[in-house]
Recover the amino acids of this structure.
């Protein structure tokens, strides 16, 4: 029983970390004053970050393996 509780706590921590990443990558640009001189490079960087975030969310929230937590702990 303790093992299950421990895993669920770890999953919650991973979820919180992913929410922090979500805030840093997605919400921050919208909170800054709007700049109309966004270059294509910024646009592609933003898309790359979104793609990484989607992979991160998928790996942590929808993966059936519990190894994802330890994988993200290392990096």
């Amino acid at each position: 029983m303790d093992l299950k509780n421990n895993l669920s706590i770890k999953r919650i921590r991973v979820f919180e970390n992913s929410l922090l990443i979500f805030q840093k990558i997605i919400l921050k640009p919208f909170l800054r004053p709007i700049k109309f001189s966004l270059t294509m490079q910024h646009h592609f960087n933003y898309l790359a970050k979104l793609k990484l975030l989607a992979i991160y969310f998928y790996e942590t929230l929808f993966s059936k393996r519990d190894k994802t937590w330890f994988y993200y702990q290392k990096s």
